[in-house]
Amino acid sequence: MKALKFLGFVGLLVFLWAFGFFWRDIQQGQAPSPRALAMAFGAQGQANLNPEQLFKQSYNRIASSYYRPLKTLELKYAGMEGLMASLGDPHTMFLPPRLAEDFALETRANFVGIGARLSPDDMGARIAVVFDEGPAANAGLQKGDIITTVDGVNYAGKNVDIMVSKIRGKEGTTVRLGVIKQGQSKMQTLTVKRAKIITPTVEGTFLPESQVGYINVSSFSEPTAEQFDKVMDKLSKEPLKGVVIDLRGNPGGLLETAVEMVSRFVEGKTVVTMKDRDGRRSTATSLTGYKRNWPYPVAVLIDEDSASAAEIFAGVLRDYKKAILVGTHSYGKASVQEVKELIDGASAKITIAKYFLPSADDISRKVDVDGQYVSGGLHADVQSKIDETKLFNYADFGDPFKDPQLKKAIEVILGKS
Amino acid sequence: MSPTAKSLTAAVAVLAATGTILAGAMMRDKVDVGGVNSAEAFPSMSGLVVSRDKREVPEGDYFYEISNLLKQRYVESVSDERKLAIGAIRGMVTSLGDPDSLFLDKDSFTVHRKMREGEYEGIGAQLEMIYLEPPTKDSRNPGQPVDPDEVLLSSIRIPKLTVVSVVPGGPADKAGVKVGDYVEYVDDHWIPNAETVASYRKLQADFSQKKITWEQLSKVRVELNQRMKKSLLPLKARERLLIGQTGEVNVVWKRGKESITTNIAKAPSRQATFAEVDGAIHLLFAEGVDAQLKEAIQGKTEIVIDLRNNANGLSGPMQKCLEVLVPKGAYGVLKVAKHELPLEVKVGNAQPPTVTLLADQSTRGAAEIFADALVKAGVAKSVGKTAGHRILVEDYALPDGSGYTLAIASYAGGAK
Questions:
Q1: Under an 8 A CB cutoff, do A20 and B407 touch?
Q2: Which of A129, A325, A382, B125 could cross-link to B166 by cystine, CB 3.0-4.6 Å?
Q3: Which B residues in the span 283-322 are in contact with A, Cβ-Cβ below 8 Å?
Q4: CA-CA distance, A116 to B14, in Å (whole number)?
Q5: Which of A35, A56, A61 sits opposite B59 (nearest CB)?
Q6: What is the distance in angstroms between the Cα of A324 and the nearest Cα belonging to chain B?
């Protein structure tokens, strides 16, 4: 009798334990999930590990047996990076919190900094662009100046991204920069106050010699289409013979922005057709009411670093015969990604659809086993390359006399108009 | 039973019951996402995505959630979850940035396992990535594709793909390849190496100190960019040299300042795991050699052990061989993940023979530790300079035939 009572009590305890274990499922009004059951009763046998167990086994092994100190959080993130990379799609990737933040900043095109774009240099970082009315411009920094130190620390030979992360900071705080002005040899120290920056993604210049408007679009961010309108309004006051839209090095951005930009050229037309995993098609159509007047030829400059939204914009203009493409072939990114934010600040960027241009072209990039380009991308109507045996001085980028691709684009426009 | 005892029993029972529920719930917390409703979110989105709490997520849940996210959203159907798991393992191993901890594809792993048994293919040598400086925080992924700018301007560590042992009589040996040579070109592909990158970085420093002009620097830069265009990553080059039983490979080696060009025909080659040649015992630290060693030293007071071209030993067999040759005791310290362990001989051999060791730069890893322990035990006399890489490496197979190596200990407190 006593034994029976004891047994009953033990049984009750087991039941209560299970109740506790499955409480989360019960709360959600559902039967225990197979995964929960597997966790409670699943055998951890070596022979037939399920994928999750296989991963966990190696995670635990590396975390506990690797002989050097390591951070388990980073190990986990590295695992997730590898997991997503295993699909072989370069655009499906895991972004650990720090990178996820950078990515979000880029697409919003607004963050706190000094208002300049930096490019790598052997002595630190070279200022590639200074944003109008930003803190850097106010402090007298100019394109071509070289930043060698940040808050007294030398960053020569380090990755520019590290330097950028040190220059960024809280709004209203200051950063000390060691700067070598272009053409000088002595370093001077400037103190710059950080402020909220809305990145200009569109910059326009009127080239008086050729009477061509030169517009550089550096990415397709939230404010891009609006910035494009402003730049065009300003340029339209000049006696334009044509416009060059420079998308070289433009990595793309938001599909919505590409649609908005196309809407400046055509109304109510198909921009791209997207095909998702289930073969469902959806179409993005250009908006009405934003079309501008284009009484002169338009040339679009592309290179291998023009990708995604930039390729959509360029390809659609070509397909509707609104522009001539000049340069080299483009990158060849024909897919749409969505970004899912995860609870610890990391993100997962996942390719969810493929897109096709109005001409039904699939421009997907193909690479060989070493990752080298084989085919894909848009093909320029007029080919123009930068000589790779010489080191191109990026200060000459956008110079109508020294930039061979821009020179070609201007020739094309003047030949047509 | 008195009323007090009865109520006491009841109280204990209630406590036990409550405790059990809590234990169950806590257990679940341990194995599941902490407080995130993973079930509720599907199919709209996973639990990881929905919640905004900042907290650390257990690795298993991360795996589960990300795989599910891909299964639901990725443009193509994701059916092979095992492939995802193995991709994750590849990511973790690669992130260590450790030349001894490598993820190896099926072919590479098969070759690696056979090498441990003395069976070689390719050029019949062992090549490892040797770095000039220790790893730092941002020196990850040495095997990942890198662009020229990253290699030349960033702080990425670049190794030298170096010969650490050659199979006597094998193709590399016949072609005159020596331990310490490193690979500069394989079939016209440049292999980025530490020396070249270091010398470029020195030029950068010279430039910033105005010792050389921008033109001088960019001339070298352009030349390196051209080389980089036709380059092969060290891990890929290693595969090309070590895998395959037929075909010829053209290799340019660097030996000191000298470049040596060789055409090597790939062919199988072999090193016995245990052999007695001219009175010297050759052994590789593979499973089972300790028994052969024990038999070979029966009744002998003096033996010679040849540890040259021995760079791939396993720690288990090495320790078993120590048991055969040295008395009970501790011979140095193994530094493992979070603590130190003595390199212990539990039973040992109370009357060990005197050992003469043959060792050189090609004595590496487990073999080197073995030599040090013998010297420390007073069984052998101090040997010449060995490779100086006293690290124990294990390997683990994965179900698809791939696998990885993992450095599990470094040895300290060797021979004086």
A1: no
A2: B125
A3: none
A4: 67
A5: A56
A6: 30
Asked if B159 contacts B131 with a C-beta cutoff of 8 angstroms, the reply is yes
pLDDT digit string (tens) for A105-116? 666 656 788 988
Q: Which helix (H) or strand (E) holds A388?
A: none
In angstroms, the Cα distances linking B155 to A283, B98, B138, B140, B197 are 45, 16, 8, 10, 10
CA distance A386 to chain B (A): 14
Residue B262 CB contacts under 8 Å (≥ 6 apart), including other chains = B175, B176, B177, B250, B251, B252, B253
B106/B397 Cα distance (integer angstroms): 9
A53 SS3 class: helix
Residue B189 contacts residue B230 (beta carbons within 8 Å): yes
Helix axes A224-235, A255-262, angle to 10 degrees: 30
DSSP string, A91-106: T-EEE-HHHHHHHHHH
- Whether the per-residue pLDDT at A1 is higher than 70: the answer is no
Rounded Cα–Cα distance for residues A108 and A239 (Å): 34
Distance CA A327, CA A405 (A): 6
Taking the C-alpha atoms of residue A236 and residue B99, their distance in angstroms, rounded to an integer, is 60
Q: What are the two backbone dihedrals, phi and then psi, of residue A355, each rounded to the nearest 5 degrees?
A: -120, 155
Measure CA A244 to chain center. 23
Verify whether the Cβ–Cβ distance B24 to A16 is below 8 Å.
yes
CB-CB under 8 Å, B89 with A55: yes
**Nearest CA among B314, B279, B316, B272 for reference residue B296:** B279
Q: Are strands A174-180 and A146-150 parallel, antiparallel or unpaired?
A: antiparallel
Query: Among B83, B87, B95, whose Cβ lies nearest the Cβ of A74?
Result: B95
Instruction: List, in order, residues 6 or more apart from A69 with CB less than 8 Å away.
Output: none
Query: Encoding tokens for residue B221?
Result: 């830069």
Contacts of B391 in chain A (CB under 8 A): 67
Distances (CA, A) of B199 to B132, B194, B203, B214, B374: 12, 9, 6, 16, 40
Determine the Cα–Cα distance for residues A267 and A292; give it in Å rounded to an integer: 10
Q: Give residue A29's pLDDT band: very low, low, confident or very high (50, 70, 90).
A: very low
In tens, the pLDDT along A230-244 reads 999 999 999 999 999
Closest CB to A23: pick one of B25, B78, B407.
Answer: B25
Q: How many of the other CB atoms lie within 10 Å of CB of A331?
A: 23
Say if CB A294 and CB A282 are below 8 A apart.
no
Shortest Cα distance, chain A CAs vs residue B20, angstroms: 5
How many angstroms separate the Cα of A386 from the Cα of each of A211, A307, B101, B151, B267?
A: 24, 18, 41, 22, 45
Whether B158 contacts B193, CB under 8 Å: yes
Pairwise CB contact (< 8 Å): B82 & A51:
yes
- For the entire predicted model, the pTM comes to 0.73
Q: Which residue has the tokens 């409550």?
A: B18
Q: Rounded mean pLDDT of chain A?
A: 85
